[in-house]
């Protein structure tokens, strides 16, 4: 599996579109997880890039985090309402790892407070999930054609052009 910094080096186009769409949607994405019965669940999430790593952090004791605790596989999709995908679109797949590091948690809380004013400082996080990526893709319109950029670790990016 691949860390965020490795991903951005191997897949600069997919990473750029993900970051751009993530910011344009107010940091909102859709998170796909697996329920206990194996069926899919879609939930809103605000993934955060912090210290060159991608984090899936949110309100504690929610079904999406119970899903990830049971089965760490996920897909995160940049939120879009544009059926023409004129601004691009991106998806990332991977697995989360629960990182237990109180000093990291405190730095994260300080960063969130400085960025959006949400005060999580001094709190203990139930789960602190770092995303390790297994693949990614991005869609964008180029010269009237849809281009799908696909990435897998160690393979770099490849572009499929749809007419």
Automatic annotation (TrEMBL):
Pfam families: PNPOx_N
InterPro entries associated with the record: F420H2_bilvrd_red/Heme_oxyg (IPR052019), Pyridox_Oxase_N (IPR011576), Split_barrel_FMN-bd (IPR012349)
SUPFAM superfamilies: FMN-binding split barrel
Domain Pyridoxamine 5'-phosphate oxidase N-terminal residues, every copy: 27-116
Record keywords: Oxidoreductase
Keyword Oxidoreductase: yes
Gene Ontology CC, one term: cytosol
GO MF term list: coenzyme F420 binding; oxidoreductase activity, acting on the CH-CH group of donors
The protein's name: Pyridoxamine 5'-phosphate oxidase N-terminal domain-containing protein
Annotated source species: Pseudonocardia hydrocarbonoxydans
């Amino acid at each position: 599996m691949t860390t965020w910094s490795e991903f951005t080096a191997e897949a600069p186009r997919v990473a750029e579109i993900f970051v751009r769409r993530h910011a344009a949607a107010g940091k909102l994405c859709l998170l796909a997880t697996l329920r206990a019965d194996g069926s899919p669940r879609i939930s809103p999430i605000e993934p955060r890039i912090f210290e060159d790593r991608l984090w899936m952090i949110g309100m504690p004791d929610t079904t999406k985090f119970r899903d990830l605790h049971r089965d760490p596989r996920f897909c995160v999709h940049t939120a879009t309402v544009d059926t023409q995908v004129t601004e691009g679109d991106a998806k990332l797949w991977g697995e989360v790892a629960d990182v237990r590091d109180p000093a990291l948690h405190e730095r994260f809380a300080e960063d969130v407070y400085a960025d959006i004013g949400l005060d999580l400082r001094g709190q203990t996080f139930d789960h602190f999930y770092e995303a390790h990526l297994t693949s990614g893709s991005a869609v964008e319109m180029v010269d009237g054609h849809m281009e799908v950029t696909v990435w897998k670790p160690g393979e770099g990016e490849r572009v499929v052009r749809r007419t």
